[in-house]
Amino acid sequence: MNAIMIPTSAYFIKKFSFRHLFIVFSSIFLVGTILGAVANTFIMVIIGRMIQAIGTGMMMPLVNVLAMQYTTRSKQGAVMGIIGLAFNFSPIIGPTLSGIILQYFPWQYLFILILPFIIAVVLLAIFQLPQIETHDNPKFDVPSLITISLGLLFLLSGFSNIGQTSFFSWKVLGFTIAGLVLIVIFSIMENKSAKPIINFEIFKHSQFTFATVINMLIVLTMYGNTILLPLMIQMILHKSPLISGLALLPGAVLTGFMSPVSGRLFDKYPIKRIVVTGVLIDCFGTFMQAVIDVNASVLMLTLGQMIRQLGLVLILIPIQTHSLSALPKKYLSDGVATFNTLRQIAASFGTAIIIAVITMADKIITGSTANQAVGIQAGFLACLGFLLIALALTFKLHRPDIVD
């Protein structure tokens, strides 16, 4: 649902004021959270999560557009660093906090404990957000919206089935091919439209394109690692889910501390220098995790994860700021929608491909715990391979010409 909402964000941002959009969609997120908190069936939980995804699917691109459009270029990195503190810190700290909560409280507290914060956000939006009007009147293209929504739904469904069934089954190939075909059809429809939902002129700006591809590769490895590390700790080292959650905590704290710093680095230093450094650090941390075996300690895995997180925070915030700063302001909403949609696709594909690698390795080498560890090590090595591809692409990065 989140991935489906993000492409439509470009239309809503062009059509309605920032204040109204933020209030409406943060309220939608609040409704989904309340539904999850009072749910007594699994279906109700799923519906609550889907409603939450509608809210976050709009608020994330909305905040990014607001930051890039109304911040001077010399301070865009610093502002995006603060935003990145929330967007990049939350997915990392989430598993840790969830593990602690589930250890001591019923699962409903996953929803209940965040309710006060969401209510505070809605109230602050109502009383503090300024009214910023838009001056565009885009066409709401229903056929295009249905096409991209179904395309993303099929594509992500296909990815999610990798590892659960044969790669050549209709659940994988059928859904994936159908999704790709619909996305291609959507692209053709948008190129012929006078007022497209997403303007693909953005890909004519090479720095946006390179930065987006690099971001996809990095996100792919990041989400793949969120599966590998808990598997290694729980299945191979035989530790509890709480321990695996706590192992992620130091890296999450480091991410929180470094997010604003990495944004300020973007404002002061060449983008290539920052991102190359980040990818090299990420590669080193991933290699550390890939060579760890059944005799390893949780401390070593945690150290490797901290190194990886340091590399990631030096990549993700600068690369997003760089990609959007390469676009004219009139294309910002299109750029944010596209960047975040492709990020969601990369996250789903990363999870799926790592599961597939582990599954294939397990089929080749089965039996002892040591052999199971080989499958997880293969997953880490796959992440390292994608990082090396990203490293090669980073040498194409340079400061874009200033465009408005």
Automatic annotation (TrEMBL):
Keywords assigned by UniProt, alphabetized: Cell membrane, Membrane, Transmembrane, Transmembrane helix, Transport
Keyword Coiled coil: no
InterPro entries hit by this protein: EmrB-like, MFS, MFS_dom, MFS_trans_sf
Topology in the lipid bilayer: Multi-pass membrane protein
Compartments in which it is found: Cell membrane
Protein name: EmrB QacA subfamily drug resistance transporter
NCBIfam families: efflux_EmrB
TM spans (from-to): 21-44, 50-67, 79-101, 107-130, 142-162, 168-189, 210-236, 242-262, 274-292, 298-319, 340-361, 373-395
Example of a GO cellular component annotation carried by this entry: plasma membrane
Transferase as UniProt keyword: no
Molecular function terms, GO-annotated: transmembrane transporter activity
